[in-house]
Amino acid sequence: MILKSISYKKDKTKQGYPYQLPLFQSLESLHFQKPITILVGENGTGKSTLLEAIAEQAGSIRINPSNDDGSDLHSLSKQLKLTWSVKTKKGFFLTAEDFANFVRRASEMKETARKELENIEEEYKNKSSYAKSLASLPHNRTLHELEELYNDGLEFRSHGERFLDFFQSRFRPGGLYILDEPEVPLSPMKQLSFISLIKEMEQQNAQFIIATHSPILMAYPGAEIINLDSLPPASTSYEELEHVQITKTFLENPERYLRHL
């Protein structure tokens, strides 16, 4: 494991959200014993908050975060102690919302760079080629770097395809990848493709900590599943998960659930 464990030191002076969540009232430590750890829990459990705090304390790159000042998160992260086998700066922290914002920003960057190049063509038409090339250099570099990473551009693919392309382009062996509900942009078939991609990364010494509601991702072969609805959080089997049991019985007999709505 890259990240071996986290321990949480409670601060009784901290009141309100998120400190009063049952998760943080009961949490003492989590141990990561496998390359893939799946965190499971109901909405409002504190999965996302815990992931963000781990990522902040680990110094993980966050892909296009919001403008929230994150003061509560910063305070919470300081109460976490991380134990490493090998400290790494490779990898990143990503939420589904962050990814959507990133795609939008990348598209805007490409459009801005193209417009600036058009303006330079007009502004420098009576100047030397050298002066024009200097003025164009940063905008051409922006376009080149985006095209090197994402080929034709993330904006020309479906949301799920963009997500998979993004991972393939940004993956580095030996990285720590902290993901919050990565299934959001993915169809069931694309979720299977994502599992295949994770397996390739695992073989190159990557570690993943994933919070998800998807029974498909929860079924990742050999993953450790930690149920945050248990207090304190505890490892559990795939078959014992409420997400899995409800999904299975619903698919077997949808009318059993829908007739009561």
From TrEMBL:
Membrane topology designation: Peripheral membrane protein
Protein's name in the database: AAA+ ATPase domain-containing protein
One Gene Ontology MF term: ATP binding
Gene Ontology cellular-component annotations: plasma membrane
Stretches assigned to coiled coil: 103-130
Keywords tagged on the record: Cell membrane, Coiled coil, Ion transport, Iron, Iron transport, Membrane, Transport
Organism: Fictibacillus phosphorivorans
GO annotation terms (biological process): iron ion transport
SUPFAM superfamilies with a match to the protein in the record: P-loop containing nucleoside triphosphate hydrolases
